[in-house]
Amino acid sequence: MRPAIFLDRDGTLNEDVGHLDRFERLVLFPWSLDAVRLLRRAGYAVVVVTNQGGVARGFVAESFVAEVRRFIERRLADIGERLDGHYHCPHEPHATVAAYRRICDCRKPLPGLVRRACRELDLDAGRSVVIGDKWSDVRLARAAGARGVLIRTGYGGGQEQAPPTDLRPDAVADTLMDAAAWVLRNPPPGGR
């Protein structure tokens, strides 16, 4: 089983613009593709795990979430890279779209997306890292048995200023590239 890097999408790979519903609003951070390449070349699987509550609220079509995934994959292919997986949760308990109205185990910070990825891709959560711009990403790391890095892009700078009393990240980094550097300096127990 391989270790993985589980990445949040909005605020981590791309600018967080609220509910991303049009391509003209999609802006990848300039370091995102290189950070993915660096982590994959170091032996990590790289998997996106993202809540997409805009689907449940009717703001975003689930097909558009898939289009964004394909766009990111094409950009990575342009530099000879790829994602190992991409998982999203479209559910919310109080969704306006009835088909997505449910309590599920895949909505971060619950670990359903990470567990599914581990099963399907033969990944070791205990040797993995979750990177994201919200405390829910760090909480996901704890729930999955992984390490968690909070980054200051997206909501991260504000989140850092209001830490929960019961949660500490393994690291705080300015960007995804800085988080990747931390991962490489702090390999998982048992190696990569």
Describe this structure in words.
The protein has 192 residues and is an alpha/beta fold. It has a single domain (4-127, 139-184), classed as Rossmann fold (3-Layer(aba) Sandwich). Helices cover 35% and strands 15% of the residues. The chain is built from seven helices and six strands, in the order βαβααβαβαβαβα. The chain has helices at 32-41, 53-56, 62-78, 112-121, 135-144, 156-161, 176-185; strands at residues 4-7, 45-51, 85-89, 129-132, 147-151, 171-173. The protein has a six-stranded parallel sheet, sandwiched between helices. α1 runs parallel beside α7 (176-185). The longest helix is centred in the middle third of the chain and has 17 residues, at 62-78. The N and C termini lie close together (10 Å).
> What's the Cα radius of gyration?
15 Å
Beta-strand portion reads 5-15%
CATH C-level category: Alpha Beta
How would you write the strand order of the largest sheet? 3-2-1-4-5-6
Q: State the order of secondary-structure elements, H for helix, E for strand.
A: EHEHHEHEHEHEH
Helix content: 25-40%
* CATH architecture term: 3-Layer(aba) Sandwich
The secondary-structure class comes to alpha/beta
pLDDT averaged over residues: 96
Low-confidence stretches: none
**Major sheet details:** 6 strands, parallel
Please give the count of helices.
7
